[in-house]
Amino acid sequence: MAILNGSDKETAHKVSESFNDLMRDKFIALDEDKCHFIYQLIRATGATNIIEAGTSFGVSTIYLALAVAENKKRSNGAQSKGPGVIATENEPSKAATARKHWAQCGPEVEAEIDLREGNLLETLSKDLEHDVDFLLLDIWTPLALPTLKLIQPKLRPGAVILSDNTITAAKGYKELMDYFKALDSDFRTLTLPYSGGLEMTVYSPK
Ligand SMILES: C[S@@+](CC[C@H](N)C(=O)[O-])C[C@H]1O[C@@H](n2cnc3c(N)ncnc32)[C@H](O)[C@@H]1O
């Protein structure tokens, strides 16, 4: 079981502060083809408990919510109740815009999303009731490994982790990749050839 230590949190806070200022008004969303792949993957795996690390204006979240809603319809009520997607955003203005986008999509989408506003290292540190099937790591790279370590105890065996732009942001992702690829790692990982790289990792504890 991975443990998130104080210095992980401190590093993540410090590195992200100035970057957050710069990125506050930037409309960033996963490429459309990546969103389609993620939708299909969630449908194929039957995932119903998803965490999105980094939500921004809520574009990728819509695909996550639609896929979970479909999975739930087909599981004859066997799945857990309540929203299937935990979204995370620390910029209040982005969170507000995301909520507007989801409202435009309708109740099927809105009902599947639990948006946690604030620093995800805090908001994801409690109230994770269910094992996690799927983690989308679409967050500033210094937060990627601390976030993974925070969620790792809740990952179910076979859970999928997708991390965006692992080729173009290889330097920033180095610690995460070293963790995934360590000899004693509980993860198996490969880089999919989407623009910028999309890392698909499976939690495979021994
Ligand atoms: C790459 S964007 C997410 C894009 C979104 N997944 C999409 O495809 O539509 C990353 C987001 O993470 C947010 N973020 C950065 N640090 C955060 C933190 N500590 N806690 C929560 N959100 C954070 C940023 O404000 C930014 O909106």
Tally of alpha and pi helices: 8
Order of helices and strands: HHEHEHHEHEHEHEE
Total number of distinct structural domains:
1
What is the structural class? alpha/beta
Task: Give the distance, in angstroms, between the N- and C-terminal Cα atoms.
Answer: 12 Å
For this structure, the CATH topology is Rossmann fold
Q: What multimeric state do the chains show?
A: single chain
Helix content: 40-55%
Bound molecules: S-adenosylmethionine
Q: Report the β-strand fraction as a percent range.
A: 15-25%
pLDDT averaged over residues? 91
Outline type: globular
Main sheet strand line-up: 3-2-1-4-5-7-6
- Name the CATH superfamily classification: Vaccinia Virus protein VP39
Number of strands: 7
CATH architecture: 3-Layer(aba) Sandwich
CATH class: Alpha Beta
Low-confidence stretches: 1-6
The biggest sheet amounts to:
7 strands, mixed
The Cα radius of gyration reads 16 Å
GO molecular function, one term: O-methyltransferase activity
Pfam families: Methyltransf_24
GO biological process, one term: methylation
Organism: Gymnopus androsaceus JB14
